Amino acid sequence: MRHGQTEWNRAGRLQGLRDSALTARGLAQAGRQARLIADIGAARYSSPQGRAVRTAEIVFGGMSFATDHRLREIDVGEFTGHLLEDLQRQRPELFTGAPIDWYDRTPGGEHLEQLSARCHGFLADLPGPALIVTHGITLRMLRIHALGWPLSRIGELTVEQGAVHVIRNAAQEVWR
Known about the structure:
Shape: globular
Largest sheet: 3 strands, parallel
Protein name: Histidine phosphatase family protein
Organism: Paracoccus onubensis
Binding site for substrate: 2-9, 51
Strand order of the largest sheet: 2-1-3
Radius of gyration: 16 Å
Distance between the termini: 11 Å
GO molecular function: phosphatase activity
InterPro entries: His_Pase_superF_clade-1, His_PPase_superfam, PGM_Phosphatase
């Protein structure tokens, strides 16, 4: 699950490792996720970043959950806090190629291979089925690994706030 909408999501501002508060819509999205997973018994995890932790508190309804640093969002380095549309206009050369290739070109940012390694490590350490609250790009990377797809297909995966992205038997579905 992706965390609920934040003030920066609404504005189109890149958060990376920084945080902003959940909006009223983000709180409602977390409530919807809580209803969708209410009858599922599984281990519970969250990114340690504030927006994910706040979402997990709502989604898991006060039940305990573990945080894991490997679930944090990709670091966008010097792009943190900038509006994506401004960067696309000012630096169009960085936004060529596949839809998310630009993450590998963020000055001082984390590369997709680094994110891939930490997501792979997290999944390898899971003891069984899990409910996970994380971030957009991290959620895509977790799903790429769980589905056994090559990294080149990561741009094919959508991410919805307020939905539950389910991976089961090497297939995916979205609960809304």
